[in-house]
Amino acid sequence: MRKTVSRLVSALLLTAALLGTACLAASAADVTFSDVKGHWGESYIYSGVQKGYINGYTDGTFQPDKTVSRAEFSKMLNQAIGMKTTATVFKDVAVNAWYYEEVRKAVAAGYIAGYSDNTFRADTPITRQEAAVMVARVVSPPETLKTLTTLNDNASVASWAQPYVR
Protein backbone atom coordinates (compact mmCIF):
# COMPACT_ATOMS: atom_id res chain seq x y z
CA MET A 1 0.00 0.00 0.00
CA ARG A 2 2.78 2.46 0.85
CA LYS A 3 4.35 1.99 -2.60
CA THR A 4 0.98 2.80 -4.19
CA VAL A 5 0.61 5.83 -1.93
CA SER A 6 4.09 6.92 -3.01
CA ARG A 7 3.06 6.89 -6.66
CA LEU A 8 -0.22 8.62 -5.87
CA VAL A 9 1.51 11.31 -3.89
CA SER A 10 4.08 11.82 -6.65
CA ALA A 11 1.27 12.64 -9.06
CA LEU A 12 -0.34 14.81 -6.40
CA LEU A 13 2.88 16.71 -5.81
CA LEU A 14 3.42 17.30 -9.51
CA THR A 15 -0.04 18.72 -9.70
CA ALA A 16 -0.17 20.67 -6.47
CA ALA A 17 3.19 21.60 -5.05
CA LEU A 18 5.02 22.14 -8.31
CA LEU A 19 2.19 23.59 -10.36
CA GLY A 20 0.69 25.74 -7.66
CA THR A 21 -2.77 24.46 -8.46
CA ALA A 22 -5.89 24.98 -6.38
CA CYS A 23 -8.91 22.77 -5.90
CA LEU A 24 -12.20 23.68 -4.33
CA ALA A 25 -15.44 22.71 -5.99
CA ALA A 26 -16.68 19.27 -6.95
CA SER A 27 -16.01 18.10 -10.49
CA ALA A 28 -16.66 14.96 -12.51
CA ALA A 29 -13.70 12.85 -13.62
CA ASP A 30 -14.50 13.58 -17.28
CA VAL A 31 -14.61 17.35 -16.85
CA THR A 32 -12.87 19.73 -19.23
CA PHE A 33 -11.49 22.94 -17.76
CA SER A 34 -11.56 26.15 -19.75
CA ASP A 35 -8.11 27.28 -18.63
CA VAL A 36 -5.72 24.30 -18.88
CA LYS A 37 -5.53 23.63 -22.63
CA GLY A 38 -1.88 23.89 -23.60
CA HIS A 39 -0.68 24.35 -20.02
CA TRP A 40 2.48 22.31 -19.37
CA GLY A 41 0.69 20.51 -16.52
CA GLU A 42 -2.48 19.69 -18.46
CA SER A 43 -2.00 15.90 -18.50
CA TYR A 44 -1.08 15.86 -14.78
CA ILE A 45 -4.14 17.93 -13.94
CA TYR A 46 -6.53 15.63 -15.77
CA SER A 47 -4.82 12.56 -14.32
CA GLY A 48 -5.25 13.96 -10.79
CA VAL A 49 -8.89 14.78 -11.47
CA GLN A 50 -9.56 11.33 -12.91
CA LYS A 51 -8.05 9.69 -9.82
CA GLY A 52 -10.13 11.91 -7.54
CA TYR A 53 -7.24 13.73 -5.84
CA ILE A 54 -8.03 17.17 -7.18
CA ASN A 55 -10.87 19.07 -8.78
CA GLY A 56 -11.65 22.47 -10.18
CA TYR A 57 -13.89 25.40 -9.47
CA THR A 58 -17.64 25.65 -10.06
CA ASP A 59 -17.08 28.16 -12.87
CA GLY A 60 -15.39 25.47 -15.00
CA THR A 61 -11.84 26.67 -14.38
CA PHE A 62 -8.92 24.95 -12.72
CA GLN A 63 -6.63 27.96 -12.25
CA PRO A 64 -3.41 25.97 -12.78
CA ASP A 65 -1.07 28.79 -11.80
CA LYS A 66 -2.85 29.75 -8.58
CA THR A 67 -1.09 28.95 -5.31
CA VAL A 68 -2.39 26.10 -3.16
CA SER A 69 -3.50 26.79 0.41
CA ARG A 70 -2.67 24.56 3.35
CA ALA A 71 -6.34 23.48 3.48
CA GLU A 72 -6.44 22.66 -0.24
CA PHE A 73 -3.26 20.60 -0.03
CA SER A 74 -4.64 18.73 2.98
CA LYS A 75 -7.74 17.88 0.99
CA MET A 76 -5.68 16.60 -1.95
CA LEU A 77 -3.43 14.52 0.27
CA ASN A 78 -6.44 13.08 2.12
CA GLN A 79 -7.92 12.06 -1.23
CA ALA A 80 -4.64 10.47 -2.33
CA ILE A 81 -4.28 8.34 0.80
CA GLY A 82 -7.99 7.65 1.25
CA MET A 83 -8.14 9.20 4.72
CA LYS A 84 -11.55 8.92 6.42
CA THR A 85 -10.80 9.04 10.17
CA THR A 86 -11.02 12.44 11.87
CA ALA A 87 -9.64 14.11 15.01
CA THR A 88 -9.88 17.38 16.91
CA VAL A 89 -8.76 20.45 14.99
CA PHE A 90 -7.08 23.76 15.68
CA LYS A 91 -8.63 26.83 17.24
CA ASP A 92 -8.69 28.73 13.93
CA VAL A 93 -10.60 26.07 11.97
CA ALA A 94 -14.29 26.92 12.06
CA VAL A 95 -16.85 24.10 12.07
CA ASN A 96 -18.63 25.67 9.08
CA ALA A 97 -15.46 26.08 6.95
CA TRP A 98 -15.38 23.98 3.76
CA TYR A 99 -12.09 22.45 4.90
CA TYR A 100 -13.12 21.58 8.48
CA GLU A 101 -13.46 17.82 7.85
CA GLU A 102 -10.31 17.78 5.68
CA VAL A 103 -8.22 19.32 8.45
CA ARG A 104 -9.71 16.83 10.93
CA LYS A 105 -8.62 14.00 8.61
CA ALA A 106 -5.14 15.47 8.26
CA VAL A 107 -4.74 15.67 12.04
CA ALA A 108 -5.92 12.06 12.42
CA ALA A 109 -3.50 10.92 9.71
CA GLY A 110 -0.69 12.57 11.66
CA TYR A 111 0.80 14.55 8.82
CA ILE A 112 0.00 18.00 10.19
CA ALA A 113 0.70 19.44 13.57
CA GLY A 114 -0.08 23.10 13.01
CA TYR A 115 1.73 25.99 14.59
CA SER A 116 2.86 26.44 18.19
CA ASP A 117 -0.09 28.77 18.86
CA ASN A 118 -2.55 25.91 18.06
CA THR A 119 -3.51 27.35 14.66
CA PHE A 120 -3.56 25.74 11.24
CA ARG A 121 -3.74 28.87 9.03
CA ALA A 122 -5.80 27.07 6.41
CA ASP A 123 -5.87 29.87 3.85
CA THR A 124 -2.12 30.49 3.92
CA PRO A 125 -0.38 29.31 0.75
CA ILE A 126 1.49 26.07 1.40
CA THR A 127 5.22 26.16 0.89
CA ARG A 128 7.13 23.41 -0.89
CA GLN A 129 8.87 22.52 2.35
CA GLU A 130 5.54 22.22 4.20
CA ALA A 131 4.22 20.01 1.39
CA ALA A 132 7.37 17.88 1.56
CA VAL A 133 6.96 17.41 5.31
CA MET A 134 3.29 16.44 4.97
CA VAL A 135 3.97 13.94 2.20
CA ALA A 136 7.02 12.48 3.95
CA ARG A 137 4.88 11.76 6.99
CA VAL A 138 2.54 9.49 5.01
CA VAL A 139 4.95 7.59 2.75
CA SER A 140 7.65 5.05 3.49
CA PRO A 141 11.08 6.55 4.09
CA PRO A 142 13.34 6.35 1.03
CA GLU A 143 16.20 3.88 0.97
CA THR A 144 18.69 6.72 0.61
CA LEU A 145 18.53 10.39 1.48
CA LYS A 146 19.44 13.02 -1.07
CA THR A 147 21.53 16.08 -0.41
CA LEU A 148 19.91 19.46 -0.46
CA THR A 149 22.66 20.91 -2.63
CA THR A 150 20.84 19.60 -5.71
CA LEU A 151 18.12 22.20 -5.11
CA ASN A 152 18.68 25.71 -6.43
CA ASP A 153 17.05 27.18 -3.33
CA ASN A 154 18.60 24.77 -0.79
CA ALA A 155 19.69 27.61 1.50
CA SER A 156 16.06 28.57 2.03
CA VAL A 157 14.97 25.15 3.33
CA ALA A 158 14.27 25.58 7.04
CA SER A 159 16.07 23.25 9.46
CA TRP A 160 12.75 21.69 10.58
CA ALA A 161 11.98 20.67 6.97
CA GLN A 162 15.44 19.47 5.88
CA PRO A 163 15.07 15.80 6.91
CA TYR A 164 11.76 15.59 5.04
CA VAL A 165 12.98 17.41 1.95
CA ARG A 166 15.99 15.07 1.79
Low-confidence stretches: 1-9, 14-29
Helix content estimate:
25-40%
Kindly estimate the percentage of residues that lie in beta strands according to DSSP.
under 5%
> Which value, in Å, is the CA radius of gyration?
16 Å
Terminal-residue CA separation = 22 Å
Judged by helices, strands and strand pairing, the structural class is mainly alpha
Principal-axis shape: globular
Number of strands: 0
Main beta-sheet annotation: none
Order of helices and strands: HHHHHH
Describe how the helices and strands are arranged.
Blueprint: H1 2-18, H2 42-51, H3 70-81, H4 100-109, H5 128-136, H6 162-165
Structural features, described:
With 166 residues, the protein is mostly helical. The protein has six helices and no strands. Helix 1 crosses helix 2 (42-51), helix 1 (2-18) packs antiparallel against helix 3 and helix 3 (70-81) crosses helix 4 (100-109).
Keywords:
0% strand; 166 residues; mainly alpha; disordered N terminus
Short recap of the structure:
The chain has helices at residues 2-18, 42-51, 70-81, 100-109, 128-136, 162-165. By secondary structure, it is an all-alpha fold. The longest helix has 17 residues, at 2-18.
